Amino acid sequence: MLHDGHASRRNFLGGLGATSAAVLMSDLFALGKAFGEAAGDDGLHVASNAYPWYTYYRRENRDFNADLDAGLADVAAAGLQGFEALLGSPDDVARYAPLLKKHGLEMRSFYIGLPLHDKEAANASIEQILVTADKAKAELNTGIVVINPAPLSWNRETGRADKTDEQLEVQADALNRLGAALRERGMVLALHNHDMELRNAAREFQHMMLATDPNNLTLCLDAHWMYRGSGNSQVFLFDIVKLYGKRVSEIHFRQSQDGVWTEAFGPGDIDYARLAR
Asked: What structural domains does the chain harbor?
């Protein structure tokens, strides 16, 4: 079920709990807060992050990035209004910009994951993000940079690798500096997480939120990773909303049934109607 740009976010999310209608590519949406002139009516902007498209294309032995023109045409054909790309450089912006405009898609936010827990690497990452953000804002009026600080390892099968307290302090400082620099540019930094940041009493996630200025770091609430990373707990998800709801600038949402992610968005393990309230 898709709603037009004049539907409220509350009405849209509130209806999710009652519908079982399939929404093409609805397993992961980015509900970016509106920026600039498009923000005036609190209209619902529904976009898709790049990751599910990569997943679906791989399932068909296709490469989404091999033909961005065709890929973004599919995004637009699905009825979506925007696309949250994974950008690593100004060249990536230059590649996306004309095609997004061609297909009538906005890029109100982009996603990036780089190391911030090492001082030298953090400085290089900040520089890389800022030059990319400058290009995205100039070319596409992008307003949100969604950052997922790189973990020590993405491999969940060969043992856990958790950051030290010193690394967490370095990372929080880097996020604060990056967020301040983006704020000077009229942009917003939003923290995203997966499951590893919620290990060990969620110390990585909590320190990033508590050791940074709320003016410099907002939250990209990925509802299902909060749920999954806390042992499939809605209690934890809604505690996070209670603690940090005022810092949410974007929502990533997907659904599961009995712990298995679904492609059609409807009733499931997460009560999105409650989240809307």
From this structure: 53-253 (3.20.20.150)
